[in-house]
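Hello, quick one for you while I still have it in my head. A protein chain has come my way and I'm curious about its shape. I'm sending you its amino acid sequence along with the backbone structure tokens. I'd be grateful if you could look everything over and explain what you see. Here's the protein in full, and shout if anything looks odd to you:
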Amino acid sequence: MLKKLRIFLLCFIIVGLLSGAVLAEKVTITWWINPWRIAPPNFPADQSPSSEDFPKWVSEEFMKLHPDVKVEYVVVGNQEYPQKMAAAIATKTQPDLFKGPIWDSRWAKAGLLEPVNPYLTAEDKQDFYPGALEEGLVDGKYYIWPWNFGTNGMGTSILLYTPDFEKAGVDWKKIVNEGWTMEEFVEIAKKLTWDTNNDGKIDHYAISFGAKDTHNLMNFLYAFGGELANTDESEVTFNSPEAVAGLQYVLDLVNVHKVVPKGVEGMGVYDVIGNFHAHRTSMGFGGPYEIGRISRYLESGELDEIFYPVIAPFPHVKGKDPVGYATSGGFIVFKQRDDEKREMVIEFAKFLTNKENTALLESLSYLTARRSVNEGLYKDDPYMNEQVEVYGDIMDKYGIPFFGSQEFPFSQMEKYFTAALEAAFAGTKTPEKALNDFVTEANKILSKQK
């Protein structure tokens, strides 16, 4: 009898241990994110968030809601992301979901990704900007859970320093509300260019450009009707008469109308921003993020005083809409073999992109992919709330992609585009010759890709 009791107890213990092991086994979710310095709720106002703070916080919050889940995150640098992801896919060690600077629609076509469609609610479809959803559209299915809409605003909108406009007698509110044609832009720019010291030398300009400032200069080429490539991206076409006219217009602002400081061929985007911050120009480039940079520069001592620019659309060709660089991003889920884990990974993607967590992008002065969230941003700051509304409206109405599809190798072509702009601004090549040379080199890259 005692022997049977011992056997029973031993079996009981073994079953208990096995059950405990099963219960203790958690679903593990791995995810990658590139560096986003987002402040979690209740983050100290006198500190700057690191790239680890948001992913750590949001992983822990999800685990509180789902104690049977373990969430592990990795922050991957922008430069190393493509190589790291390619290696992970090749070895089948990719994360369960990711947010990064890259994704490839061929992954969806190869069946490597989970489509979003089955999980989108009617409210989600109404709330997400169409452009944000379409960023992940492949063969009729969505593959990106939208999160951010737009970036720093380069190529999207222009910043106006309103005191200068008022000094010149220019109605900046009309520009914000109704836009301006290319011809109107020239005439207004002339009024914003002057000799501050009355010494016979122009030292204040309407705006400045930089040959290395790809996004903003591209806007003018697109506005005149230029297209980077043909519809199926089999040929680069940024040397069309329309693209040449756009580049000529920008050159004329410098050389003919003289509303832009010389030296464009040697300048980059931060030189352009610096001129605007120092009030050497009346216009700059960017969106809410760049307005937020003014506050950050003030805190760091790089600026002496705060100022409040307003957001306006780029000028447009008469009879055509303006254009603006529109991009968005979100979280992508890799294919899951286990049904239970798939549901939990999707649940985490939904958690990351819900209204509350998406709203945390406010700490970056970024717009979100949700209309309802953007309407509630900066409720305690009417000025920023208004700028966010204008910026979102520009992207929603006029936003277009500038750099082709995810597979289009513009990153390999960009150095040739910059070289073309440098040559055009330096006067060593005509706009037509400069763009012809860019297209020649770019199409060589395309032919190698095929």
Q: What stands out?
A: The first helix runs from residue 2 to 24.
